[in-house]
Each structure stands twice: as structure tokens, then as C-alpha cells.
Amino acid sequence: MEAMMGSLATEKEWRKGPWTGEEDKLLSEYVCFNGEGRWSSVAQCTGLKRNGKSCRLRWVNYLRPGLKRGQLTPIEVGIIIELHAIFGNKWSTIAKYLPGRTDNDIKNYWRTHFEKSGKSKHKKLEMQKAKVLKQLKQKQQPQEYDVKSIKSHEETKNETKSYETENNKQKEVDFMCPTMEHQYIVPSMHEGFSSTWPDTVLGDDGSWFSLWDFDDEPQCSADYVNQFSESVVPNQATFGVGEDSMQNHDKIFYFDDI
DNA sequence: AACAGGAGCAACCGCCCCCTA
DNA sequence: GTAGGGGGCGGTTGCTCCTGT
């Protein structure tokens, strides 16, 4: 706990650039014990010379459990294309429909594969989109995912935003804690897709937990912190942490315990 | 084998919103 | 009512790796 005694770094001392394994470990330990949020106090509590934003970004985009690595599947790409047509560059909104993918992942993918296409490659882009959508359609018959439902869902959310504000900001909980309507949308979106919604579990507190396997990586049955000590790649730890659970680390459970 | 260009991705930047004092 | 701080989000940058020549 020597690191916990670290002093607060001044702004001039903030470290930048790639994160080291030790930094990841410190940040993960902090989130494990304190939950997400209070990013500005990470440096004070852990001795990390990283500012709050950097810590949050590292956690959200790389360390948070349940993140999926690797290439997007055609289904995911199809969803991105459809949702981008609806929401535009609202990456975080799109990311909510692709569990395990971060807004950064989606943004990067879009920029790499579509945005960089440019005018001269517009035709190629359209062909690529058409190809993906075709694959999507084939995989999803007879159940097609209903983008209109998603759209109306988002519109409904917007309409109720004032209500949510009055109730102390509900933080998109309506998506993470699906109503009957959403439960209708979700499974059909990923018909034939082996690693997304069908693999999620609705927790007692209403949060969605991922059950993705990470290929041949070991299942997390030991203490999360110990996993880091054993140099196990952090984002491949397969334990579930719901939004509420993150606020109370004593609620964290492991899938082996389910 | 060496080099150039492109792809992919992690991380930073800056703006905006919301909450709180 | 408002100012300041924290956090979220979209845009951008830069590094690494891969592939083609």
C-alpha cells in the first residue's frame, strides 16, 4: 500500500503517453476498491501521476471488465452503419448497443474504414456497407433487428429526459436496465452472433453483465487484484461488474460464483 | 532487405454539460 | 443566479505494426 501513500502530483507533473502495467494495476486496484468515478482523486489515492481524465479514459477504454478486443464482426459493423445513419457521430450512443465495444473503438473503426474513404472511394464505401448489410440480413432471417425500434427508443429517452433530470439523472439506466420493449429489441439485433447480447445476463440490480468468453484466457475465479499481480491481461478478466456494483465494491461478484 | 505508405489503435485535447456550493 | 470543478464526449494526434514495392 506504499503507492496509496503517494503525494498528489501537480499539473506540471502529470505523466502522459502509454500506460505501464504498474499504472494499470494501480488504477484497477483503485476502481476495484472505490468504484468508478472520483477520477480526480485517483492520483491522490494511488500515487499515479496521471490526471483524472487520463485515468477515466484508460479505465473505460482498456481496463474495464467485459471489454471485447479484436475485430468487429459483420453484425457489429452492420449495427454501427445503421445506427450511424440514425445518430450520426454519437459514438457513445452507438456504443451502448454494442456491449463490450467502447465509443473509442467504434469511432476508430468508422474513421479507419469509412471516413477515410473520401470522395474517390465513396463507391467502395457504399459497396462495403452494402456487403455488410447483406451479410447481416442473411444472418438475421427470419428475425431482423429493428432499427426503427432503436430509434424510437432513443426518441422516447429524449422525451423523458426532463423527467430523468428531475429524478437526479438516471444515467441511461433505461438502456442498461431494459424494459420489455428493449428486451424485444436486443436479442433480435444479434441473432446468429455468438458474443454479444445473448451472452449477457440481467443482474439482480437490473444491470447487464457480460458473459463473454475471451477465447482461451483463464476464467476469473481468484481475487481481481491478484490477477494483476499474476500479470494476467486485465481486460480479459471475466468477472462482471454492474454500474451499481462499481459504486460498492463489496457487491462485486465473479461469474464462477453464479 | 529496406523503405514508404497505410491501417489500426491508444491516448490526448478541448469543448460542453451538469452538479454543487 | 452563478462560478468552479468534475466528468463525458467527439475530434485529433501520434505511435506501432503491417503490407506492398
Strand content of the residues, in percent?
Answer: under 5%
Apparent shape? elongated
* Helix/strand class: mainly alpha
Total tally of structural domains: 2
What about the largest sheet? 2 strands, antiparallel
Q: Please, how many helices?
A: 13
What is Rg?
20 Å
How many E strands?
2
Low-confidence stretches: 1-9, 118-124, 140-145, 158-258
Spatial order of strands in the largest sheet: 1-2
The pLDDT mean sits at 57
The helix-strand sequence is HHHHHHHHHHHEEHH
Helix content: 40-55%
How far is the first residue's CA from the last residue's CA? Answer: 31 Å
Write the layout of secondary structure elements.
Blueprint: H1 21-34, H2 42-46, H3 52-63, H4 74-87, H5 91-95, H6 103-113, H7 122-140, H8 147-159, H9 161-166, H10 173-176, H11 180-189, E1 200-202, E2 208-210, H12 224-229, H13 243-247
Antiparallel strand pairs: 1-2
Helix pairs in contact: 1-3, 4-7
The structure holds a DNA duplex (21 and 21 nucleotides).
